[in-house]
Design a protein that fits this description.
Length: 256
Amino acid sequence: MKKLLIRLAIVVVVLVILGILAMRLFLDSAVKRGIETVGPMVTKVEVKLDSVNLSLLSGSGKVKGLVVGNPQGYKMPSAIQVGSATLALQPSSVFADKVVIKTIQVQAPEITFETDLKGNNLSTILANLQAATGGQANQAQAEKPAKAGKKLEVDDFLITGAKLHVSVSALAGQSATVPLPEIHLTDLGKGPDGITAAELAQIVLKAIEKEAVQASSGAVASLSKQAAGLTKGLGNGATGAVDQVTKDLGGLFKKK
């Protein structure tokens, strides 16, 4: 009888372990599939992800190899690349209507700010997200009726060590890389309604674009001076073209 109980206990432990592993694999693949499926629908650009690892026991997780593509008409291969990001969530909330994420930390992302003098790649993606969410994501949640489906709450969102690659299509061959200041967002989706993943992405991208515009203005001015130096001796036409580009860029930044 004692041996039978021991065997049953071993079987139960093995089944529990297998169940946890199966649930983790299912959850990881479901999150990855969701990001790669819904992401392109709301951003109108390609979204790829290498892997997702979540632990329901500890609530910790890691995302690796996130790549957000560039909108049509822009030349650079991607708008955002994230090597790795970590998160901590409230495990019990995974099975609730609103998933509570305590922290998200994005380390050293590579962000491209590409402009054609009429707009930029980040603002184009942001406009797509706004269209998908029906407007501004940070409006008072009380003004919106509750919607079915999984919602999110992110208490702390931190981006550190970001590099901004500035590219101006009108100044062919001219580019620069500058550091991006730390971006820290808190209390996203607080309250009973929470926010959708698309609304979260809109808030984060809006903060990124704001910092990118400010950080890139100095780099663009430097690129314009370099281009002006290269056109010396090429005639008034070339110099005038660079001057016009510089004016157009100034007007673009004033709009922000």
